Known about the structure:
Blueprint: E1 2-5, E2 19-20, E3 26-28, H1 36-44, E4 49-52, H2 57-66, H3 70-83, H4 92-108, H5 131-141, H6 146-155, H7 162-170, H8 173-183, H9 197-204, H10 206-219, H11 232-253, H12 258-266, H13 270-278, H14 280-293, H15 297-305, H16 309-319, H17 324-331, H18 343-357, H19 373-379, H20 384-404, H21 413-419
Antiparallel strand pairs: 1-4, 2-3
Helix pairs in contact: 3-4, 4-20, 5-16, 6-7, 6-10, 7-9, 8-10, 9-10, 10-12, 11-12, 11-18, 11-20, 12-17, 12-18, 13-14, 13-16, 14-15, 16-17, 17-18, 18-19
Amino acid sequence: MGTVYIEDLRPGMVLSADVRSRQGRLLFSEGLALDELSIQTLKFWGVTETLVLGHDQETLDRERIKALDPAVARQAWEEASHRLKLCDPTHPTVRELKRVSFINLIQNGLPAPRRHTPEEPPHEPRKRPDLSRLASSTIKLAALPGIVTQALEALSNPNVSYSYVAEIIGKDTALSAKLLKLVNSALYAFPESVDTISRAVTVVGANRLTSLALGVSLINIFDSIPRDVLDMRSFWKHSLACGVLARLLAVTAGHPNVERCFVAGLLHDLGRLVMLKNHTAHVAQAVALARREEISLHQAERELWGFDHAELGGKLLTVWKFPASLERAVAEHHAPGDGTIHQDAALVHVADIMAHAMALGQSGSPLAPPLSGTAWDSLNIPRSALGAAAAQGERQLDDIGHILLSGNGNGNDKENDKAV
Length: 420
């Protein structure tokens, strides 16, 4: 009898104990022989591990490694370790993140060997950027779509009707089309098609659908950054991956608004886009410092600028009058354990590290940021939730990436579609 993670359950395995949901509901009793339907049911209820007769996760992992070419296994483990180099290797959650990264590498293929060529230090910019001036100037540069602003204002009224919110969002046909595709995607997996915004508001909720509208709208705002500075397709893939993973972890944590966590993950690196659009040389200098000193990119930003992209992103959302919960999640996603822990920030923090560990897109940071053990403990979710989120997240990302990134990015869309 041993613990087996949900992604490694197979038909024919026999439960050695009752399985309950996180809410305490009995799902299956001891002695049940699992089949495909029962395994899918466990996934639906957010179960991430079970006790099974004659199997345990460590043995299954060892068997998986034995089946591999030793050289491939060693290279995959070294790559996973490199990606999480800034994290404490003795922390149990970091070990699990490394396992998730390793499995992802085995399933999706190893990257090309890294070239250790010395980089020429970029020219040092003359003047430090100013945080407040950046946020205020960006408002003029990239105003929020009027439809989203109206929906936010409507939701501030406690007496507003769902039909009124649906009417506002429905005025933007392009936004409505993307929202409907998103609601009908693997992100929700509703049994029946949702074909109108009114229906979407009913099944998803006005607040949640408006949160999604915020995220979808902002993807289109920063679209003029040259490809040689940052591959926007890869950037938004990383951001989407962070949003998807934050949402999945939020479900396990019993969060009351998982769409808010998706949007927080989607927007977590917004400040870096602002810097790239306004101060490209400063970003190049920070990236070079992070690589040279093998420190996190946000630490390099703080050393050079006096603030980091997270603080700038939070400042921008405040000026834009976004909900305070979103502003805090973005501003604190690199320091969610400093002071009072904000659950949304802690979820985005872990999801961001996961996205880096799995190399889902690229935000400009050469390594995954360090894990805050305090933030992880505050979530009160099992480590097995990481592997479950990774398995589900890749499928969802593939589906919604084609929806939200269609026509975005800098480069040939047909080529880019293959990379999503």
